[in-house]
Each structure stands twice: as structure tokens, then as C-alpha cells.
Write a structure and sequence with these properties.
The protein has six helices and seven strands; from the N terminus they run ααβαββαβαβαββ. It has 217 residues and is of the alpha/beta class. It has a single domain, classed as 3-Layer(aba) Sandwich (Rossmann fold). The chain binds S-adenosylmethionine.
Length: 217
């Protein structure tokens, strides 16, 4: 009986980033998406407080810990726990509260990262919609834990909901940049957004009672 030829997974093919990650002791090649962005835009500084959403297996966290040094603090969230020393919340991001992140950090965050992606099914629209759900959760958490002036770096699967998401981002951040680092595979629909200059929205004030109004309750 003849076997159907197996389609090769283009995402698992080792390339120069895979080799470099191995040589430099990083857990994944995706670290180079973050290092390139940091080199171009200067995201990290010593002493910062950073949240890493979707942190497993841990290459972004490894890099961030080097950059923020011993005065910095990092909290990672994922369904799986990285095999690295650190502060990890091992649960779905859907079950993590802003309060929990604030407590784990001990102070407002300077940077929130999200490299989260669901298990893909290979149907671009479905994968896009599911990934955008995670992106929106990441944005909600970021807006609740970031210090004014903070930054948000997030992976996005391209698709029709992206313009609405970008409008949402612009409500909260002074500057947003679309970034596609070299380490993103050519055939991938992913890109990143670096949003900086976080400006929390002022709390909505109770409307003042109109002058001379009478409460008839
Ligand atoms: C591309 S990997 C992240 C790689 C990581 N940035 C690194 O450099 O090692 C995407 C991660 O998103 C995580 N993820 C997917 N859905 C999640 C959810 N609901 N809550 C938390 N993490 C989730 C996956 O478990 C996976 O580890």
C-alpha cells in the first residue's frame, strides 16, 4: 500500500536563528524577534519591571532578565512553566487578574510583552480570530498594570480584525509601530506591535447634578 507523502512543517525547519539560539543558550529561536526590536527601539533598561505573557519555554524571559539586571523584576505567565529560575504564574492568562500581576511585580510594570499564540488549526481566519482573543486579553492586562509612559510589545496574527485592534491600541498609547523582525518566518502571518507612551485614561467622573435640580426620590 502506498503511503501519502508527509507535508513538511515549514515552521520546524532549523535555520540560522535556531542555530544561534542553541549556540547562545536560549530556549527558543523566537528570542531574536525580541532582541532585534530592543536593538532598534531600546525597549529595556536595567531595573525595569516586566510582564511576559506566553513566556514558555522562556527565551524572551532569559533575554529580559539579562537586560533588566538584579534590580529588575520579571513575572512570566503561561500554561506551561519554564525550566528556569524565576517568578512564574502557571495558568491560562484568561484566569489571571491585574491585581495578581501587580502583587507579583510589587510595582507598576514598565513593559508588558505578549508572544501568546493558541494551538493553530491551519485555517487562517480561525487562527487569526483565536489569536486576537489572546491579544485583547493581553491589552486589557497591560492597561491595568502598566505605569504611565510604559510599553507593550505584542504578537499579532494578521487578518481582518487588526485595524479595529490598532484603533483600540491608539486610545491607550501615544505611539504604535508595526514591526516584523527578521526572525519571523517568511511564510508566517505574524507581526508585532510595539506600543509606547502608555497614557491611562482618566477615570470617568460622576456627572455633577444640574444646578437647582431636585431629587424627587
Ligand atoms: C510562541 S510561544 C512563546 C515563546 C516565548 N516567547 C519564548 O520566547 O520562549 C507561545 C506561548 O503562548 C502560550 N499560550 C497560549 N495560550 C495561552 C493562554 N491562554 N494563557 C497563557 N499562555 C498561553 C503557549 O503555551 C506558548 O507557550
Amino acid at each position: 500500500m502506498s503511503r501519502k507523502p508527509q507535508r513538511k512543517n515549514p515552521y520546524s525547519k532549523p535555520d540560522r536563528f535556531t542555530r544561534a539560539a542553541k549556540e547562545e543558550g536560549y530556549k527558543a529561536r523566537s528570542v531574536f524577534k525580541l532582541t532585534e526590536t530592543d536593538k532598534r527601539f531600546g525597549v529595556f533598561r536595567p531595573g525595569q519591571a516586566v510582564v511576559d505573557l506566553g513566556c514558555f519555554p522562556g527565551s524572551w524571559s532569559q533575554y529580559v532578565l539579562q537586560r533588566i539586571g538584579s534590580r529588575g523584576t520579571l513575572v512570566g505567565v503561561d500554561l506551561e512553566r519554564p525550566q528556569l529560575p524565576g517568578t512564574w504564574i502557571t495558568r491560562s492568562v484568561l484566569e489571571v487578574t491585574p491585581e495578581e500581576l501587580r502583587q507579583a511585580l510589587g510595582r507598576p510594570a514598565d513593559v508588558v510583552l505578549s508572544d501568546m499564540a493558541p494551538r493553530t488549526v491551519g485555517v487562517p481566519f480561525t487562527d487569526h480570530v483565536r489569536q486576537l482573543e489572546l491579544v485583547r486579553v493581553a491589552l486589557h492586562l497591560a492597561t491595568q498594570v502598566l505605569a504611565p509612559g510604559g510599553a507593550f510589545f505584542v504578537k499579532v496574527f494578521d487578518g481582518e480584525e487588526v485595524p479595529a485592534f490598532q484603533d483600540e491600541l491608539r486610545r491607550w498609547f501615544g505611539k504604535t509601530r508595526r514591526v516584523r523582525p527578521e526572525a519571523v518566518r517568511q511564510q508566517s502571518r505574524e507581526f508585532f506591535v510595539l506600543a509606547t507612551e502608555f497614557a491611562p485614561l482618566p477615570p470617568v467622573a460622576d456627572p455633577a447634578p444640574a444646578e437647582g435640580s431636585v431629587d424627587d426620590a
